[in-house]
Design brief:
The protein is an alpha+beta fold. It contains four helices and six strands, in the order αββββαββαα. A four-stranded antiparallel beta sheet has the order 3-4-6-5, with helices on one face. It has a two-stranded antiparallel sheet with strand order 1-2.
């Protein structure tokens, strides 16, 4: 019974870590990565469509992303979508291929990005703590319903806390790696 509660908490905490990792991929570091364009949607025959579903994305150099539309008539739409994306990127087209040069980050922009990364980390930690709270409440309910003993309750709470500490440490590691990547010149 306690193991079921812990498994459910672990699943919730895994989801929080996965969401944090996705958020970290979207944070621009001055290096090219096609994940920067994950949120860009193109007007494809009246339907907002993710860029990756209408073009081939590539990273030929450390500071460049290329976008090869599957249909040439989408070039202006893709350029417009990238401009509007609020990523601060400037696409340039040669009529067949769009190139996006990734400018290096200024010191102020790096510090802003570090603050953003820490905020995202705190959101993940809140989700993890919420999973801990839910697990502790479930274990207390089991004890109240006389399905487990008081010793089992204490053990369950300790195991839940150990699990929480492990996942908070994972968050800290992910953030430390991203901060190091951001501060590289």
């Amino acid at each position: 019974m306690i193991q079921d509660v812990l498994d459910k908490a672990r699943t919730s905490m895994d989801k929080a870590i996965d969401a944090l990792k996705r958020e970290m991929q979207r944070v621009r570091t001055g290096r090219a990565s096609v994940t920067l364009l994950d949120e860009v949607c193109v007007d494809y025959y009246g339907t907002p469509t993710p860029l990756s579903q209408v073009a081939t994305l590539g990273v030929p150099e450390a500071r460049m992303i290329t976008v090869q539309p599957w249909e040439k008539n989408l070039l202006p739409e893709i350029e417009k979508a990238i401009y509007k994306s609020d990523l601060g990127l400037t696409p340039s087209s040669d009529g067949e291929l769009i190139r996006i040069n990734i400018p290096s980050l200024t010191e102020d922009r790096r510090k802003e990005m570090v603050k953003l990364v820490r905020t995202k980390s705190e959101d993940a930690k809140i989700s993890i703590r919420s999973a801990r709270r839910d697990a502790n409440e479930a274990v207390k309910k089991l004890e109240k319903d006389k399905e487990i003993t008081e010793d089992d309750l204490k053990r369950g709470e300790k195991d839940t806390q150990d699990l929480t500490d492990k996942y908070v440490k994972k968050c800290d590691t992910i953030v430390a790696d991203k901060e190091q990547e951001l501060m590289e010149v």
